[in-house]
């Protein structure tokens, strides 16, 4: 069942985000595909974050977080914030530079979800990057969208 569960979920295509939070001098980012839009009125988003993720206490204490939606070609950024450090990758002004879109959120609620937490944020500001294609994660690897011609 466990393997079939993981295999089934690997067949769900997802965009890739980096969730980031700051508390005083400490700032952390984490790659997350468990991201969804939740509500339009009010504007809410939700993220599934592992209970042991180091970003979780920061996010809960600061009551704020930022979601950067990664674009095609930002595989190294995703790898970096998933614990595989890459040269020259970091946060600028609390978000990923060159992201497709950035959502600045106030923490609305944190719900239990097994070994993860369901983190709900109210979107307070949106920054739109240059339009483009997203980075996609599917079948345990990074993929590119192919636009039908
Ligand atoms: C495609 C993909 C999707 C994933 N989706 C999810 C998901 O939806 N939910 C989930 O819980 N996990 C997800 N993960 C796993 C998650 O990204 C890793 O487990 C992550 O390393 C755990 O983060 P952490 O908060 O414990 O922080 P750390 O492991 O401490 O941080 C992660 C990495 O980011 C770097 N970093 C952190 N802050 C900064 C900073 N301010 N400047 C520069 N570098 C910094 C660290 O050096 C480290 O290499 C996903 C992983 C991948 C590859």
UniProtKB/TrEMBL annotation:
Keyword check for Aminoacyl-tRNA synthetase: no
Short name of one Pfam family: Flavin_Reduct
Source organism (scientific name): Thermus scotoductus
Annotated PANTHER family: FLAVIN REDUCTASE, FMN REDUCTASE (NADH) RUTF
Domain of life: Bacteria
Gene3D superfamilies for the chain: Electron Transport, Fmn-binding Protein, Chain A
Keyword tags: Oxidoreductase
Residue span(s) of domain Flavin reductase like: 9-144
InterPro entries: Flavin_Rdtase-like_dom (IPR002563), NADH-dep_flavin_reductase (IPR050268), NFP_flavin_reductase (IPR053664), Split_barrel_FMN-bd (IPR012349)
Protein name as annotated: MFS transporter
SMART domains: Flavin_Reduct
